[in-house]
Amino acid sequence: MGKVITICQNKGGVGKTTLAFNLAECLAKRKKKVLLLDTDAQANLTSYFASEDTDYSGVQLYDAMINDTKLKPAKTINENISIVPADLRLSDIDYSLAQKFARETILASKVRMLADDFDYIIIDTAPNLGLLTINSLLCADSLLIPLIPEPFSVQGLNMIRTLLKRLNEAMHKDFKMHIVLQKVKNTSLHKEMESELRSAYGDAVCKQTIKDGIKYAEKSIQSEMNNAYEYTALTEEVMNINKD
After folding, report:
1. What was the pLDDT predicted at 30?
2. Could you tell me if 104 and 171 are in contact, meaning their C-beta atoms sit under 8 angstroms apart?
3. What is the pTM of this model?
């Protein structure tokens, strides 16, 4: 059964989609079958994996969530990666879900139907802690929190931890949380914050960090990723985290 990895951070600009993109590419290079769920209305992850003639009509995440239909993975430019795409309608999906029964676990029930078809299912969340993000958290076998080692980003971590505690109390779900330090600069502030985070969270902070300046890989699957070493090492770490 495929492992579900949810990438969450309510602060924008920390590299959630970058992380999802590169993990998927690195896993695909290992011949792993990967399913991406884009839950952000900006649909950046969707656009990076779509070819110019891709038609995603009728298979977007919104349709499955609101119309109570199955998730319909679509092919991408990478033969080992499929995607359930996002579109702008997700911007008000929390309102649309509010009246549904068991609204917090709708996505989990749909993801379970696909778990045997993929090695990994990666969920890229929007920069908020709304109902769709809660759905994404409750799907997760493991949770990755991308974090810039700066005070404002750490505040976002504290908000997530508070939400996870409440979900644990209400839904009796234990969360396997790991922090991924991204956009790391060689400055005294970043070194100090990284040291404090590792002291506070220990092994929950991934050993591999992603330096500042690392961008998306080129859209062409033939092109070499400009962050190959760092994301390759991080992917190995994530795979070990998700071993049974």
Report:
1. 95
2. yes
3. 0.92
DSSP 8-state assignment for residue 120: E
From the list 185, 193, 195, 165, the residue with the least C-alpha distance to 177 is: 165
Exposure on the CB side of residue 216, measured as CA atoms within 13 A: 14
β-sheet bridge partners, residue 6: 123, 143
**N residues, the chain:** 244
The rounded distance, in Å, linking the Cα atoms of 64 and 45 is: 18
**List of domains in the chain:** 3-241 (3.40.50.300)
pLDDT of residue 214: 52
Region class of 43: left (phi > 0), else alpha (psi between -120 and 50), else beta: left
Helix or strand or coil: residue 125?
A: coil
Reported as a pLDDT band with limits 50, 70 and 90, residue 227 is low
Average pLDDT of the residues in 151-180 = 91
Give the residue-averaged pLDDT of 195-203. Answer: 95
